[in-house]
Amino acid sequence: MEEEKILTLHPEGKKGVNILKRRYEIIKDFILQTISEKDEISFEELTDLAVDNLTKSFDGKVIWYVVTVKLDLEARGMIERIPKTSPHKLRIKK
Q: What are the pLDDT digits (tens) for 49-59?
């Protein structure tokens, strides 16, 4: 049986990618929970934490999925880049 997939969105309206929904959900939950706990987090710190926490249990390239799902969550208005932060920081969109 084929696994359910989700087509991700892109904040600049570029074409999204089809990824397995179960992988999407793992990364989405991790990103949202991590940003919620920290209020603000740099993208670099987020990817480092994801690699540390998910590599053993996740059956995919963690960083690629974090980038893809982060862009999707931005496009869906769930998280946002904080303007004028370098390196860019993320927060939950109010």
A: 999 999 999 99
Range of the domain at 72: 5-92
Domain count, the chain: 1
Buried b (16+ CB within 10 A) or exposed e, 50-78: beeebeeebeeebeebbebbbbbbbbeee
CATH number of the domain that residue 37 is part of: 1.10.10.10
DSSP 16: -
Q: What is the pTM of this model?
A: 0.95
pLDDT digits (tens, 9 = 90+) for 57-84: 999 999 999 999 999 999 999 999 999 9
